[in-house]
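Bug #77: duplicate submission created two jobs. Keeping one. Sequence:
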Amino acid sequence: MEKGDLVKAKQGTIEGNSESLGVGVIIEANIEDGYGGIRHRIAWTKNSLKPWLMYEEDLEWLSKPKETQMTSDIVKRASEFASKAHNGQVRKYTGEPYFGHPVEVMEIVSEVIDDPEVHAAALLHDVVEDTPVTIKDIEDEFGPRVAALVDDLTDVSKPEDGNRALRKELDRQHTAKASPDAQTVKLADLISNSLSIIEEDPHFAKVYMKEKALLLEVLTKGNPHLFSFAANIVENYYKDVKKM
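Kept job's structure:
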């Protein structure tokens, strides 16, 4: 396991119900305990406390969304639609198919919201911004609520609106008006992207994480556990930067 990996606590490894922790992200990997054991520091989606140290054997690595997340008809259709829309696109740093990102976002969201339409919107959150698909296409295929969620999640700024700082301010103003469900998906998107960028592009991370810190200021309607999770990532990033 490595920094940035998604994990779950195995049943019976901690007091209480490990399902109550949700998904975790490794924020510090391969910490030796002095006795030959390897631990990782984990931030949890459903726990607002500081990150936990857990032994690797007590963790389950997540590489695919749970089958139960894909059982709903609308989620299946959204998965097929988004996969087709993003076909040929790859993640900037890894070269992996881009569709893996919306799946990861949906997986994180599903740990705190049990709503197939929100799961569908998570899978579709980048299709209008990054492909020729329109909001009307989404509404025709998935209905007005999913379309409204995707609209909330789509940046409104255009290149002609000014420099990056001005464009990001316009996008933050748009996000501030988004529904609580849309803000929860946005938090999951922030979590997924931040971990990737911190790991793969430290230079751009300096700009990106400053933007994400500002974005958190308007995501207060989103799920509180994901908000705490995202805030932990930002806080730990700046702690790590100070150590350099």
